[in-house]
Amino acid sequence: MRQTTTPLPQLIYPRVIHLRRRLREQVYLPFEENKDAAEPNVKIFVGPIHKNYINWEEAISESYEAIAVGDSFSPASITSDGVKEFPWTQRWFRVDVQVARSSACYIDDESKGLDRMQTDGEACHEYCLHFLAHGEFTVYTNEGNVWCGIDPCHSHIPLSGLLQRDNEKQGMESCTLWLDGGQWQTGFWFGLQPPTDELGFRILKFQLQTKNSVVNEVYHDLSMLIEWVEHMYEKEGISLNTENGYYEPLEVVPPLLRRVLHLLNLSCDCYDQTQCLTDLKEKLRSIYQDCTTSESY
Predict the structure, then answer these.
(1) What are the φ and ψ backbone dihedral angles of 103, each rounded to 5 degrees?
(2) What tens digit of pLDDT does each residue of 120-150 get?
(3) In DSSP terms, which residues pair with 107 in a beta bridge?
(4) Which of 36, 168, 232, 261 is the most buried (most CB within 10 A)?
(5) Is the pLDDT of residue 19 over 60?
(6) Over 70: is that where the pLDDT of 278 sits?
(7) Is 82 left (phi over 0), alpha (psi -120 to 50) or beta?
(8) What are phi and psi of 232, to 5 degrees?
């Protein structure tokens, strides 16, 4: 069992941050592919490079070739003044997704090592495509409608509502996506493997994943309370950045902040002891109500 309640208020904040990190790791989980399946769940193809923009109607009539993780789709070029940079070009991608209809949306099950949700509708694991690559992309449906935008910091494509019964393959659901790839540097590359002169822009990862809706809700509920605590820390001049894991003692803090830290600590205790996300969600939302309605602390 994990270490529970800390008697030191200054250690509650890092404990809550650690809990949020644990929750974030549970929001998206890799989909376990059937090793006996004749074809992979996701196949990606890339079209030719365009110096001038082409639209979706033109793109779907082009020829496409298979591309894999690590493959380059935009090598470096040399401009007229001799400065080497990546070309500002466009390239379309086609993504084919297929899954067994029986697993397209399932309920949490203890046999899968997940929490059993006792909420309205219960937690549904919906499919998402994790597509991580250099550049920025606009995602289109197979009907030519804009579905979403992705970049290295926003790399999940929701598939809910797109998967349809496959008339050619019994028991399967499938969909096709079209990605309009802009091949230029973006400000969202923080922490991403940079493109090199030799390799250029690359696909770094694509993977079919499942998103746990309840974990996602709890993660954002906790993030909201963390932002409130950080705001109060800044207001009171309390340092969030520490050296060697040392946190200054919290000796004089506003009563409401001390109470919220205490309740967050109890929420961590609850989750560490029961691993029940439903209970954690209720406790976090009661803290929020306490913050917004109480005037006596």
Answers:
(1) -110, 10
(2) 335 567 889 999 998 889 999 999 999 999 9
(3) 124
(4) 261
(5) yes
(6) yes
(7) left
(8) -70, -40
User: How far separated are the first and last CA of the chain, in Å rounded?
Assistant: 33
Query: What one-character DSSP code corresponds to residue 154?
Result: B
> Nearest to residue 61, comparing CAs of 72, 44, 41, 47?
47
User: What's the predicted TM-score (pTM) here?
Assistant: 0.78
In the chain, the percentage of residues whose pLDDT exceeds 70 is 77
Residues in CB range of 139: below 8 A, 6 or more apart: 146, 147, 148, 149, 150, 157, 177, 178, 179, 180
The per-residue pLDDT for 35 is: 58
* DSSP one-letter code for 157: E
- Structure token pair of residue 269: 């205790």
Whole-angstrom distance, CA of residue 188 vs CA of residue 90: 18
User: HSE-up of 22 (CA within 13 Å, CB side)?
Assistant: 12
| Helices (H), ranges, the chain | 12-27, 56-59, 213-236, 255-274, 277-293
Please tell me the distance from the alpha carbon of residue 140 to that of residue 60, in angstroms, as a whole number: 11
